[in-house]
Amino acid sequence: MDNLDSAKEILKAIEMPERQQNDISAYTLLALSHVREHDNWSHATNDWIRIHDIIRFIDVNYDVQYAENSRETFRKQVIHQFRDAAIIEDNGKATNSPLYRYRLTEEFLKLIQTYDSTKWDDSLNEFLSKHESLIDLYSSKRELLKKPVLINGKKFSFSPGSHNELQKQIIEEFGSRFAQGSECLYVGDTAKKDLLINNEKLEELGFSISTHDKMPDVILYCEDKNWIYFIEAVTSTGPMNPKRIGEINQLTENVDAGKIFITSFLNFRTFKRFAADLAWDSEVWIAENPDHLIHFNGDRFLGPR
User: What pTM does this model have?
Assistant: First the structure.
Protein backbone atom coordinates (compact mmCIF):
# COMPACT_ATOMS: atom_id res chain seq x y z
CA MET A 1 0.00 0.00 0.00
CA ASP A 2 1.43 3.42 -0.94
CA ASN A 3 1.48 6.31 1.50
CA LEU A 4 -1.50 8.06 -0.09
CA ASP A 5 -3.68 5.01 0.50
CA SER A 6 -2.30 4.50 4.00
CA ALA A 7 -3.09 8.15 4.85
CA LYS A 8 -6.67 7.53 3.73
CA GLU A 9 -6.78 4.38 5.85
CA ILE A 10 -5.60 6.33 8.90
CA LEU A 11 -8.30 8.96 8.35
CA LYS A 12 -10.92 6.25 8.01
CA ALA A 13 -9.64 4.45 11.13
CA ILE A 14 -10.11 7.56 13.29
CA GLU A 15 -13.63 7.89 11.87
CA MET A 16 -13.21 11.09 9.87
CA PRO A 17 -16.20 11.81 7.60
CA GLU A 18 -15.98 10.35 4.08
CA ARG A 19 -15.42 13.85 2.65
CA GLN A 20 -12.16 13.97 4.62
CA GLN A 21 -10.96 10.57 3.35
CA ASN A 22 -10.22 11.87 -0.15
CA ASP A 23 -6.95 12.69 -1.96
CA ILE A 24 -6.62 16.31 -0.82
CA SER A 25 -7.12 15.32 2.83
CA ALA A 26 -4.66 12.43 2.56
CA TYR A 27 -2.02 14.58 0.89
CA THR A 28 -2.51 17.23 3.57
CA LEU A 29 -1.98 14.62 6.28
CA LEU A 30 1.21 13.46 4.58
CA ALA A 31 2.49 17.04 4.39
CA LEU A 32 1.62 17.78 8.01
CA SER A 33 3.42 14.56 8.99
CA HIS A 34 6.38 15.32 6.71
CA VAL A 35 6.06 11.77 5.37
CA ARG A 36 7.53 11.48 1.87
CA GLU A 37 6.67 8.92 -0.79
CA HIS A 38 8.94 6.14 0.50
CA ASP A 39 9.06 7.14 4.19
CA ASN A 40 7.78 4.95 6.97
CA TRP A 41 5.13 6.49 9.24
CA SER A 42 7.46 5.99 12.19
CA HIS A 43 9.43 8.93 10.77
CA ALA A 44 6.46 11.30 11.05
CA THR A 45 7.08 14.66 12.74
CA ASN A 46 4.85 17.58 13.70
CA ASP A 47 6.85 20.68 12.83
CA TRP A 48 4.84 23.88 12.33
CA ILE A 49 3.71 24.39 8.72
CA ARG A 50 1.69 26.83 6.59
CA ILE A 51 -0.88 25.94 3.93
CA HIS A 52 1.59 27.30 1.36
CA ASP A 53 4.13 24.78 2.68
CA ILE A 54 1.57 21.97 2.44
CA ILE A 55 0.95 22.75 -1.23
CA ARG A 56 4.70 22.93 -1.87
CA PHE A 57 5.35 19.63 -0.05
CA ILE A 58 2.72 17.80 -2.11
CA ASP A 59 4.18 19.15 -5.34
CA VAL A 60 7.81 18.34 -4.51
CA ASN A 61 7.28 14.93 -2.93
CA TYR A 62 4.21 13.53 -4.70
CA ASP A 63 4.32 15.41 -8.03
CA VAL A 64 0.75 16.62 -7.57
CA GLN A 65 0.13 20.29 -8.24
CA TYR A 66 -2.46 22.38 -6.43
CA ALA A 67 -2.70 26.04 -7.45
CA GLU A 68 -1.55 28.61 -4.91
CA ASN A 69 -5.04 30.14 -5.00
CA SER A 70 -6.48 26.83 -3.74
CA ARG A 71 -5.34 27.63 -0.19
CA GLU A 72 -8.91 28.51 0.78
CA THR A 73 -10.04 25.06 -0.44
CA PHE A 74 -7.45 23.42 1.83
CA ARG A 75 -8.53 25.64 4.71
CA LYS A 76 -12.28 25.08 4.37
CA GLN A 77 -12.37 21.45 3.24
CA VAL A 78 -9.49 19.96 5.21
CA ILE A 79 -7.80 22.15 7.81
CA HIS A 80 -10.97 23.20 9.62
CA GLN A 81 -12.13 19.59 9.91
CA PHE A 82 -8.71 18.35 11.03
CA ARG A 83 -8.61 20.99 13.74
CA ASP A 84 -12.15 20.23 14.91
CA ALA A 85 -11.15 16.54 15.19
CA ALA A 86 -8.06 17.33 17.32
CA ILE A 87 -5.77 16.06 14.58
CA ILE A 88 -4.02 19.41 14.35
CA GLU A 89 -3.68 22.62 16.33
CA ASP A 90 -2.69 26.15 15.31
CA ASN A 91 -0.15 28.44 16.95
CA GLY A 92 -2.67 31.03 18.11
CA LYS A 93 -1.60 33.78 15.72
CA ALA A 94 -4.13 35.77 13.72
CA THR A 95 -5.32 33.79 10.69
CA ASN A 96 -4.15 36.55 8.34
CA SER A 97 -0.70 36.71 9.93
CA PRO A 98 2.31 35.47 7.93
CA LEU A 99 3.35 33.69 11.15
CA TYR A 100 0.17 31.57 11.32
CA ARG A 101 1.05 27.86 11.40
CA TYR A 102 -0.47 24.40 11.98
CA ARG A 103 0.96 21.15 13.29
CA LEU A 104 -0.21 17.68 14.27
CA THR A 105 -1.26 17.35 17.90
CA GLU A 106 1.14 15.32 20.02
CA GLU A 107 -1.52 12.67 20.63
CA PHE A 108 -2.22 12.17 16.93
CA LEU A 109 1.50 12.16 16.08
CA LYS A 110 2.12 9.33 18.54
CA LEU A 111 -0.72 7.38 16.94
CA ILE A 112 0.44 7.63 13.32
CA GLN A 113 4.03 6.80 14.27
CA THR A 114 2.77 3.30 15.12
CA TYR A 115 0.95 2.77 11.82
CA ASP A 116 1.74 -0.52 10.09
CA SER A 117 3.41 -1.85 13.24
CA THR A 118 2.41 -4.33 15.93
CA LYS A 119 1.49 -1.37 18.17
CA TRP A 120 -1.06 0.13 15.77
CA ASP A 121 -4.22 -1.60 17.01
CA ASP A 122 -3.55 -0.78 20.65
CA SER A 123 -2.55 2.80 19.81
CA LEU A 124 -5.68 3.29 17.69
CA ASN A 125 -7.97 1.94 20.41
CA GLU A 126 -6.35 4.21 22.98
CA PHE A 127 -6.63 7.24 20.70
CA LEU A 128 -10.28 6.55 19.92
CA SER A 129 -11.10 6.06 23.59
CA LYS A 130 -9.74 9.55 24.32
CA HIS A 131 -10.81 11.25 21.11
CA GLU A 132 -13.87 13.09 22.43
CA SER A 133 -11.92 14.45 25.40
CA LEU A 134 -9.10 15.52 23.05
CA ILE A 135 -11.59 17.42 20.91
CA ASP A 136 -12.86 19.21 24.03
CA LEU A 137 -9.30 19.89 25.21
CA TYR A 138 -8.09 21.48 21.99
CA SER A 139 -11.34 23.38 21.53
CA SER A 140 -10.90 24.83 25.02
CA LYS A 141 -7.33 25.85 24.20
CA ARG A 142 -8.59 27.81 21.19
CA GLU A 143 -11.31 29.47 23.24
CA LEU A 144 -8.80 30.54 25.89
CA LEU A 145 -6.78 32.40 23.26
CA LYS A 146 -9.79 34.44 22.16
CA LYS A 147 -10.34 37.94 23.49
CA PRO A 148 -13.76 38.70 24.98
CA VAL A 149 -15.40 41.96 23.88
CA LEU A 150 -18.71 43.57 24.77
CA ILE A 151 -20.49 44.89 21.66
CA ASN A 152 -23.88 46.59 21.95
CA GLY A 153 -24.25 45.01 25.39
CA LYS A 154 -23.68 41.48 24.09
CA LYS A 155 -20.68 39.23 24.61
CA PHE A 156 -18.51 38.33 21.61
CA SER A 157 -14.96 37.12 21.24
CA PHE A 158 -12.20 38.09 18.82
CA SER A 159 -9.59 35.72 17.49
CA PRO A 160 -6.05 36.45 18.76
CA GLY A 161 -3.87 38.95 16.91
CA SER A 162 -2.89 42.62 16.95
CA HIS A 163 -5.60 43.65 14.45
CA ASN A 164 -8.39 42.25 16.61
CA GLU A 165 -6.76 43.65 19.75
CA LEU A 166 -6.99 47.09 18.16
CA GLN A 167 -10.63 46.52 17.12
CA LYS A 168 -11.42 45.55 20.71
CA GLN A 169 -9.90 48.81 21.94
CA ILE A 170 -11.78 50.83 19.32
CA ILE A 171 -15.10 49.46 20.53
CA GLU A 172 -14.34 49.57 24.25
CA GLU A 173 -12.04 52.60 24.56
CA PHE A 174 -12.62 54.88 21.56
CA GLY A 175 -16.37 54.33 21.59
CA SER A 176 -16.76 55.21 25.26
CA ARG A 177 -14.75 58.43 24.86
CA PHE A 178 -15.64 59.86 21.45
CA ALA A 179 -18.81 58.06 20.32
CA GLN A 180 -20.85 57.83 23.50
CA GLY A 181 -24.22 56.18 23.02
CA SER A 182 -23.30 54.83 19.61
CA GLU A 183 -24.23 51.39 18.28
CA CYS A 184 -21.81 49.13 16.45
CA LEU A 185 -23.34 48.30 13.07
CA TYR A 186 -20.43 46.32 11.68
CA VAL A 187 -17.22 44.71 12.87
CA GLY A 188 -15.30 41.83 11.38
CA ASP A 189 -12.87 39.31 12.76
CA THR A 190 -9.74 37.91 11.16
CA ALA A 191 -11.38 34.48 11.40
CA LYS A 192 -14.95 35.57 10.64
CA LYS A 193 -15.33 38.59 8.39
CA ASP A 194 -18.85 39.53 9.47
CA LEU A 195 -18.68 38.82 13.20
CA LEU A 196 -21.42 41.42 13.65
CA ILE A 197 -23.37 43.12 10.89
CA ASN A 198 -26.70 44.91 11.29
CA ASN A 199 -27.92 44.70 7.70
CA GLU A 200 -31.35 46.06 8.54
CA LYS A 201 -30.01 49.27 10.08
CA LEU A 202 -27.34 49.72 7.40
CA GLU A 203 -29.95 49.44 4.64
CA GLU A 204 -32.25 51.80 6.53
CA LEU A 205 -29.44 54.37 6.61
CA GLY A 206 -28.97 54.00 2.84
CA PHE A 207 -25.98 51.68 2.53
CA SER A 208 -25.58 49.81 -0.73
CA ILE A 209 -23.96 46.54 0.35
CA SER A 210 -23.07 44.05 -2.34
CA THR A 211 -19.77 42.91 -0.84
CA HIS A 212 -18.02 43.23 2.51
CA ASP A 213 -14.61 43.66 0.89
CA LYS A 214 -14.80 47.46 1.01
CA MET A 215 -16.40 47.75 4.42
CA PRO A 216 -14.34 49.62 7.03
CA ASP A 217 -13.12 47.54 9.97
CA VAL A 218 -15.59 49.10 12.41
CA ILE A 219 -18.77 51.12 11.81
CA LEU A 220 -20.39 52.95 14.71
CA TYR A 221 -23.63 54.94 14.50
CA CYS A 222 -24.79 57.64 16.92
CA GLU A 223 -28.52 58.08 16.41
CA ASP A 224 -28.80 61.24 18.56
CA LYS A 225 -26.37 63.10 16.31
CA ASN A 226 -27.05 61.08 13.18
CA TRP A 227 -23.31 60.51 12.79
CA ILE A 228 -21.60 57.48 11.32
CA TYR A 229 -18.03 56.69 12.37
CA PHE A 230 -16.05 54.77 9.74
CA ILE A 231 -12.98 53.39 11.48
CA GLU A 232 -10.03 51.53 10.03
CA ALA A 233 -7.89 49.50 12.44
CA VAL A 234 -4.39 49.74 11.00
CA THR A 235 -1.62 47.41 12.08
CA SER A 236 0.01 46.84 8.69
CA THR A 237 -2.21 48.18 5.88
CA GLY A 238 -5.34 50.17 5.09
CA PRO A 239 -5.33 53.74 6.50
CA MET A 240 -7.97 56.33 5.65
CA ASN A 241 -6.25 57.74 2.59
CA PRO A 242 -8.14 59.65 -0.15
CA LYS A 243 -8.69 56.46 -2.18
CA ARG A 244 -10.18 54.61 0.80
CA ILE A 245 -12.50 57.49 1.63
CA GLY A 246 -13.61 57.60 -2.00
CA GLU A 247 -14.48 53.89 -1.84
CA ILE A 248 -16.53 54.38 1.32
CA ASN A 249 -18.30 57.41 -0.13
CA GLN A 250 -19.27 55.32 -3.15
CA LEU A 251 -20.58 52.57 -0.87
CA THR A 252 -22.60 55.17 1.07
CA GLU A 253 -23.67 57.61 -1.67
CA ASN A 254 -27.31 57.30 -0.53
CA VAL A 255 -26.50 57.81 3.16
CA ASP A 256 -27.66 61.15 4.56
CA ALA A 257 -26.09 60.78 8.00
CA GLY A 258 -22.93 62.73 8.78
CA LYS A 259 -19.78 60.75 7.97
CA ILE A 260 -16.63 60.73 10.10
CA PHE A 261 -13.49 58.99 8.85
CA ILE A 262 -11.04 57.70 11.44
CA THR A 263 -7.78 55.76 11.27
CA SER A 264 -6.80 53.97 14.46
CA PHE A 265 -3.38 52.64 15.49
CA LEU A 266 -2.10 50.67 18.45
CA ASN A 267 0.85 53.04 18.96
CA PHE A 268 2.67 56.12 17.68
CA ARG A 269 5.32 54.00 15.99
CA THR A 270 2.76 52.58 13.56
CA PHE A 271 1.09 55.97 13.12
CA LYS A 272 4.37 57.51 11.97
CA ARG A 273 4.68 54.89 9.21
CA PHE A 274 1.35 55.98 7.69
CA ALA A 275 1.17 59.68 8.58
CA ALA A 276 2.03 60.86 5.05
CA ASP A 277 -0.77 58.73 3.54
CA LEU A 278 -3.64 59.93 5.71
CA ALA A 279 -6.40 61.98 4.13
CA TRP A 280 -7.15 65.53 5.15
CA ASP A 281 -10.44 66.04 6.99
CA SER A 282 -10.03 62.75 8.79
CA GLU A 283 -9.21 61.81 12.38
CA VAL A 284 -6.56 59.66 14.03
CA TRP A 285 -6.96 57.73 17.28
CA ILE A 286 -4.01 55.97 18.90
CA ALA A 287 -4.84 53.28 21.44
CA GLU A 288 -1.79 53.86 23.65
CA ASN A 289 -3.06 57.44 24.22
CA PRO A 290 -6.80 56.79 24.24
CA ASP A 291 -7.93 60.18 25.59
CA HIS A 292 -6.70 62.15 22.58
CA LEU A 293 -7.40 62.54 18.88
CA ILE A 294 -5.21 63.90 16.11
CA HIS A 295 -7.17 66.07 13.69
CA PHE A 296 -6.08 66.31 10.10
CA ASN A 297 -7.35 69.80 9.34
CA GLY A 298 -11.06 70.35 8.79
CA ASP A 299 -13.39 73.06 10.05
CA ARG A 300 -14.18 71.26 13.30
CA PHE A 301 -12.42 68.88 15.66
CA LEU A 302 -14.76 65.86 15.45
CA GLY A 303 -17.79 65.61 13.25
CA PRO A 304 -18.95 65.38 9.64
CA ARG A 305 -17.24 67.68 7.15
Answer: 0.57
Q: Give tens-digit pLDDT for 154-167.
A: 777 777 677 888 88
How many CA atoms lie within 13 Å of 99's alpha carbon, on the beta-carbon side? 7
The span from the CA of 272 to the CA of 197, in Å, is 31
- Residues 144-190: pLDDT tens digits? 556 677 787 777 777 767 788 888 889 889 999 999 999 999 987 76
Beta carbons within 8 Å of 290's beta carbon, 6+ residues apart: 169, 173, 174, 177
Looking at the DSSP bridge assignments, the partners of residue 260 are 229
CA distances from 255 to 171, 205, 260, 262, 300 (A): 22, 6, 12, 18, 21
Could you give the count of Cα atoms lying within 13 Å of 181 in the half-sphere of its Cβ?
Answer: 6
Name the β-bridge partners of 263.
232, 284
* Amino acid, res. 61: N
CB 89 within 8 A of CB 103: yes
3-class secondary structure, 65: coil
